[in-house]
């Protein structure tokens, strides 16, 4: 398959001076532009690239104030769209991502099979043994939360930053609303789902060397949970009540209401039974149990419908 020549790579730069030149050198000739976004890097990565890189494709962009990886990528997206690039690839500058894999990420987008592709380091069970255990556990938890909040039930490894996106999908993103820091990749999936864009996982292996991570798990757990709840609520409202109505629009509130009623009704009578020492009548127990059972069934039916509703029709084909 012939890959479109109008492809740009975006490399956010923040404390990656020791790795950035190697990343640029590994980018193949199928790429037309390389946007190096110096995100107010204290090591002056942008100046370092300008002074030491002779690749004519490289364009150095600078932020006067640090905006985080999301802010750097949004700057790259907007610049690429203005330059007429058709596909925009994001690669980290710390050397963890193999630039030789870029054609894999481009291919489904160029072929009209996906609007957005992202890496997944969990395809090869042998390779993931090299991944730090804390990352394995964290990714598993975050992946499940992201499935709920984004609606992409068939994707995994949500924090993977190796991505490619078609211009027609990127230009419809709300650039000023997307989270600009560590929640960026996850928030991107939520925003893409609201566009009904097709997202696809690309198998890849991760590389771990002497790079230093700026991510502190203890500082982002609460933030991630809050934002996942927010995105889940927004997605459900957008997809099931604002844009469309279906049987699932009735199943979720009915299921939650019945589950809540059964739980509260049963709990109140259970506490009353403890206080009085009197046995709870069988009818009262059934009046509590049946709404719980039916409510759970309604919620499971809603989840089944939601899982089957993952976007399948490519957005940029629909636009054209």
Please, could you describe this protein's structure?
This protein is of the alpha/beta class. It folds into two domains: 7-233, Spore Coat Polysaccharide Biosynthesis Protein SpsA, Chain A (Alpha-Beta Complex), CATH 3.90.550; 245-308. The protein is built from eleven helices and seven strands. It has helices at residues 20-25, 45-52, 68-82, 102-110, 133-150, 167-170, 184-194, 217-242, 247-276, 282-308, 315-319, and strands at residues 7-13, 33-38, 58-62, 87-90, 116-120, 163-166, 199-203. A seven-stranded mixed sheet has the order 3-2-1-4-6-5-7, with helices on both faces. α2 links the parallel β2 and β3. α5 (133-150) packs parallel to α8. It is elongated. The model has no long low-confidence stretch (mean pLDDT 88).
Features:
single chain; alpha/beta; 7-stranded mixed sheet; 50% helix; 11% strand
> What characterizes the major β-sheet?
7 strands, mixed
The CATH C-level name of the largest domain is Alpha Beta
Rg over CA atoms, rounded to whole Å, is 23 Å
Helical fraction:
40-55%
Low-pLDDT regions: none
Helical run tally: 11
What's the name of the CATH homologous superfamily of the largest domain?
Answer: Spore Coat Polysaccharide Biosynthesis Protein SpsA, Chain A
Order of helices and strands: EHEHEHEHEHEHHEHHHH
Content of β-strand: 5-15%
Average per-residue pLDDT, rounded, comes to: 88
What count of domains describes the coordinates? Answer: 2
Query: How far apart are the first and last residues' alpha carbons, in Å?
Result: 21 Å
Sequence of strands across the biggest β-sheet: 3-2-1-4-6-5-7
* Secondary structure tally: strands: 7
Shape: elongated
CATH topology of the largest domain: Spore Coat Polysaccharide Biosynthesis Protein SpsA, Chain A
Structural class: alpha/beta
């Amino acid at each position: 398959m012939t890959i479109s020549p109008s492809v740009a790579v975006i490399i956010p730069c923040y404390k990656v001076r020791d790795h950035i030149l190697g990343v640029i050198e590994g980018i193949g000739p199928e790429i037309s532009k390389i946007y190096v976004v110096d995100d107010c890097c204290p090591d002056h990565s942008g100046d370092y690239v300008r002074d030491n890189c002779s690749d004519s494709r490289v364009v150095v962009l600078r932020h006067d104030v640090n905006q985080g990886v999301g802010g750097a990528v949004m700057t790259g997206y907007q610049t690429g769209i203005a330059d007429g690039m058709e596909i925009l690839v994001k690669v980290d500058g710390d050397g963890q991502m193999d630039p030789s894999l870029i054609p894999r990420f481009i291919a489904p987008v160029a072929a009209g099979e996906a609007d957005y592709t992202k890496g997944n380091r969990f395809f090869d069970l042998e390779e993931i043994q090299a991944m730090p255990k804390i990352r394995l556990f964290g990714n598993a938890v975050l992946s499940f939360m992201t499935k709920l909040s984004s609606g992409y039930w068939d994707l995994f490894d949500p924090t993977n930053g190796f991505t490619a996106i078609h211009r027609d999908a990127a230009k419809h993103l709300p650039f000023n609303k997307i989270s600009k820091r560590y929640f960026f990749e996850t928030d991107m999936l939520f925003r893409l789902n609201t566009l009904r864009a097709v997202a696809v996982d690309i198998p890849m292996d991760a590389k771990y060397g002497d790079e230093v991570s700026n991510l502190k798990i203890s500082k982002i757990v609460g933030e991630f949970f809050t934002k996942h709840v927010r995105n889940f609520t927004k997605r459900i409202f957008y997809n099931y009540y604002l844009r469309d109505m279906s049987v699932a629009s009735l199943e979720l509130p009915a299921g939650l209401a019945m589950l809540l009623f059964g739980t509260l009704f049963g709990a109140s009578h259970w506490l009353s039974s403890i206080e009085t020492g009197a046995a709870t009548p069988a009818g009262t127990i059934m009046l509590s149990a049946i709404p719980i059972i039916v409510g759970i069934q309604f919620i499971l039916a809603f989840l089944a419908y939601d899982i089957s509703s993952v976007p399948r029709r490519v957005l940029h084909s629909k636009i054209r």
